[in-house]
Every structure is written in C-alpha cells, then in structure tokens.
Amino acid sequence: MIDFHKVLVTGASGFVGRNLVPVLQQEYAEVVTPGRREFDLIDPSAARAMLETYRPDLVFHLAGKVGGILANRDFPADFCRENMILAANVVDAAWRAGVKKFVTLIGGCSYPAKAPSPIHEDQLWCGYPQRESAPYSLAKAMSVELCKSYRRQHGFDAIVLVPGNIYGPHDNFDLQSSHVIPALIRKYLEAQASGAKQVTAWGSGKPLRDFVYVGDACEGIALGARIHSGEEIINISSGTRVSIRELVETTAELCGFDGEIVWDSSKPDGQMDKGFDVSRMRELLGFECKTNLREGLVKTIEWYRANPAR
User: Fold this and answer.
1) Would strands 273-274 and 208-213 be described as parallel, antiparallel, or unpaired?
2) What is the pLDDT along the chain (310 residues), one digit of tens a residue?
3) Which domains, and CATH codes, for the chain?
4) Cβ-defined contacts of 65-70 (< 8 Å, 24+)
5) Sequence-ordered list of residues with C-beta below 8 angstroms from that of 219, at least 6 positions apart, any chain
6) Cα(172)–Cα(182) distance, rounded to whole angstroms?
7) Which of 136, 150, 167, 304 is catalytic?
8) Which of 219, 206, 204 is nearest to 290 (CA)?
9) Residue 136 bears catalytic tag
C-alpha cells in the first residue's frame, strides 16, 4: 500500500466532495481543494498548472457538470462534452505530474437501463443507460475506459469506483432538481410545518431502490483509494433494496408528518428494480456500508433542519 502525503480533490464543493474531504483530512497530512476560480479544468493547460502547482501524491477527481433531468434534457451536449473533457484533462495532467494514484467516480446511472438487478459491475457496457440522462451517463462511463487506457499504456494507477444512490448532508434539496430522498425530506418537513393534511407521492410505490448514506460511501471511497489497484470498477452501496413506498412512509414518519399520503398512479414508476451487487466491494475492499436507511434518514433530516436554506 502506497504512503500518500498530499491529496488533491477536484469538485470538493460538491455533495460528495464536502463529505469526503473531512474523511481524508483525518487520514492524510495535507488535503488541497482547488476550485474552478483558480483552475478551469476544461482548459488542459489549467489542469496541468493545477497539478504542477500542488504536486499531490493522490488525486480524487470529483469535478463534473451535474444537473437534474430537465437540465440533461435541455443541454445534453454540454453535459456530455464537459464531463468527458474534464476527466481527460485531469487524468492526463495527473499522469504527467507523476501522481501515484488517481481516483474518480461514476454513478449507477451509467449502467444499462435494463441491467438485471442487483447490477454487477460487468454489466456496464451491456446496454444503453436511461435515455433522459444518457449523454451525461455515457460521458462518465468513458472515465472507466480512460483509466484503463492510461493504466495499460503508461502503468498509471487510476481506478474508478461506483457509488449507488447516495443521500445525506450537503445534498441538493431543490425540489426542481433534487433526487428522491432530499426531495421527500424537504416536502414532508414543509408539509409538517404548514399543517398540510395531504401530500402526493408519485407512482405506485412498488419500485425497489438501493440507497447508500454518504458517510458510508465516503468511507468506502477512501478505503478503495488506499487498497484497490486494478481495472475493475467497484460498486459502493448498501446492497439492500427498499421499496419507494417504505421510503416515503418512513421519511414522512421521521419528519413528523402524520397526514395522508396519496399515491398518484398516473405518474411513472421508472425502473421497477434497481439495486447494486456489492460482492466485489466485500471481496476486494472487505467493506460494508453500516448505516441502515432509517439511521441515515435521521442524520440527513437533522442536518437539513439545521441548514434549511438549500
């Protein structure tokens, strides 16, 4: 296992970055988090300048263009182009600067929309992802081939990890662009505060999803950086599927909402079963995500109560 002294994190102001940096600060002597104002990584010369300035041993590349379904629909070229360029520029600059280890992430959305659940890592290139976000998802998936290519040609130790459906503190709670858990938390806290008697939930509640608390995901990511070296991507998730109905009802209870939940069956359910195979995580990392959904929801609700203007 390589001894890392200086760590650089791109995208440190994002959801995962804000949770990962404190974990890394407990493990490493120096963690640097340059932002876009200092180095616009779309420019390859800026990426090279960033790595030459800081000379880290270990790089976590988290920077990317992210957004909701509407943004992905309206600006597919931007999402595809920028994410591919960012990854290509940073991995090349890291290799040229003599970085010892490079770590980047892709999301579960990069897997095929029809991949059998629980989704194994080998399914990545076995079909097309959900069309609404495919330009983004495929751009992120190309990071896998990029890292493989630099490993094979240059012997560069670059790895890719695949967190599941992450939730927790510092998530996006904007009702127009957030994912399901932060949206539910905000919706039920506001309903409880206003005295609303009824809240509508989409679909039938039958779909199954695999959620992972961000604290667990970050522990797995940090561990993967320390001990994993290879072309294999690794899912980092709970490995436990829960129905959307259970998620909705549990969130409402924990938010203190005791009104009626009305299911709007005219709204789509989406993929009925999407979980992640975590056998490789257990085998290669010896890691388990320990925070169950209820515990994670309590932590996330408490954080949002203290940080409501998000």
Assistant:
1) parallel
2) 678 999 999 999 999 999 999 999 999 999 999 999 999 999 999 999 999 999 999 999 999 998 877 788 889 999 999 999 999 999 999 999 999 999 999 999 999 999 999 999 999 999 999 998 999 999 999 999 999 999 999 999 999 999 999 999 999 998 877 889 999 999 999 999 999 999 999 899 999 999 999 999 999 999 999 999 999 999 999 999 999 999 999 999 999 999 999 999 888 888 889 999 999 999 999 999 999 999 999 999 999 999 986 5
3) 6-166+211-236 (3.40.50.720), 168-209+240-273+292-306 (3.90.25.10)
4) 65/136, 66/14, 66/136, 67/136, 67/177, 68/176, 68/177, 68/178, 69/132, 69/133, 70/176, 70/177
5) 23, 287
6) 7
7) 136
8) 219
9) yes
The radius of gyration of the chain's CA atoms, rounded to the nearest angstrom, is 20
How far is 158 from 237, CA to CA, in rounded Å?
Answer: 21
Question: Contact 143/90 with Cβ under 8 angstroms?
Answer: no
User: Which whole-number Å values give the CA distances from 33 to 36, 45, 51, 304, in the listed order?
Assistant: 10, 18, 12, 24
Model pTM?
Answer: 0.95
Which residue in this structure is represented by tokens 């599927």? Answer: 241
